[in-house]
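Lab meeting, item 3. Inverse folding demo.
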């Protein structure tokens, strides 16, 4: 065996080092993909929060108007504003 030829240990060490390097490159690539996906989800969450707050404002506005109408139910029958109850007790 000559001095220029690597030993079994050195060849095996180099092969395992290459395998580990390739594994770390795959891990880094997968981590970058995951990071991009998480950023997309966070961005969509922010968009949905804006839409949700808009609908919440609309709902509160409509509920407030309905409550005002219910409070103003002091009408006189025969004027067209009287509400007939559909609940019947038998």
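The presenter then showed the designed sequence:
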């Amino acid at each position: 065996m000559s001095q220029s030829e690597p030993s079994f240990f050195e060849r095996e060490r180099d092969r395992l080092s290459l395998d580990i390097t390739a594994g770390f490159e795959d891990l880094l690539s997968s981590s970058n993909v995951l990071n991009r996906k998480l950023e997309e989800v966070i961005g969509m969450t922010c968009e949905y929060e804006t839409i949700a707050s808009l609908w919440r404002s609309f709902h509160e506005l409509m509920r407030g108007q309905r409550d005002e109408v219910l409070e103003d139910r002091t009408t006189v029958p025969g004027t067209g504003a009287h509400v007939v109850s559909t609940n019947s007790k038998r």
